[in-house]
């Protein structure tokens, strides 16, 4: 696992290894051990060409908890504004003996392009590329589901909203189907579903009433307006009426169903505050779990095998 660019094509066992290693990191933290020395002497560079709150900060925290040095490159104040190309920037960072680039970019395929062009000792982690993939988000989501629900095989999981523009949904679908989830549903209007949804191995619903019936997990997505063309823009009011998750619609799911959202949430558009802040919401748990998952992915990409994580330092 030198690079971590997409879930698509990964073996089930690889995903299980990531989940299990993340579990051990989450347990270490529960024992008040804040840092492990796994990546001591390694340098991780956060390269975020697109805005982020959760992903960038949890990658930074995860790297620090592994004892790595972390550089956060501010793209807007970097020499990119003086015309330096992306590859020249990367080669200069390589010359500073960096070991890992964590990349978010608005263009689909950007992380793959970077992975193809970096020195052989560098690992690249995709922190979200355009509409394509957000693999660590999918892993932290499946980690959260496993912690609440155990076995994947008996579960029904519904992903609701703007599937078409969502790199999160695409990665979640690959992760959930690879892990053997019983049934993966997508719910949304025809205009917000991808053309290839049938080949993704999901069941498609256009209304919440039938789509949410009997599900164990409800994953809400925001309308990704920054990736929409003008003609596709639905009215927020109309969208909330049809697809916004309220207590009433949530009552169609199983009584112990959990509610998830990758964030940022838009209250009153895809989810009501009552549900987002309610007892079945695990939205903030997802954020916390992102640290353990990103620790696991970074450790594995830099050649630290599962089981090598023992030996923490309290701090
Ligand atoms: N879920 C997610 O990717 O959030 P950020 O955009 O804040 O990183």
The total of helices stands at 11
Q: What's the CATH superfamily of the largest domain, by name?
A: Aspartate/ornithine carbamoyltransferase
Order of the strands making up the biggest sheet: 7-6-5-8-9
- Uncertain segments are 309-315
Percent range for helical residues? 25-40%
Rg for CA atoms: 19 Å
Gap between N and C termini, in Å? 30 Å
What is the compact description of this entry?
The protein has 315 residues and is an alpha/beta fold. The chain has 2 domains: 136 residues, Rossmann fold; 152 residues, Aspartate/ornithine carbamoyltransferase (Rossmann fold), CATH 3.40.50.1370. β3, α4 and β4 form a beta-alpha-beta unit.
Task: Describe the protein's architecture and organization.
Helix 4 links the parallel strand 3 and strand 4 (123-129). The chain has 315 residues and is an alpha/beta fold. The chain has two domains: 12-132 and 287-301, Aspartate/ornithine carbamoyltransferase (Rossmann fold, 3-Layer(aba) Sandwich); 135-286, 3-Layer(aba) Sandwich (Rossmann fold), CATH 3.40.50.1370. It contains eleven helices and nine strands. The two termini are 30 Å apart. It has a five-stranded parallel sheet with strand order 7-6-5-8-9. The chain has a four-stranded parallel sheet with strand order 2-1-3-4, with helices on both faces. The structure holds phosphoric acid mono(formamide)ester (CP). Phosphoric acid mono(formamide)ester is lined by residues 52-55, 128, 137, 262-264.
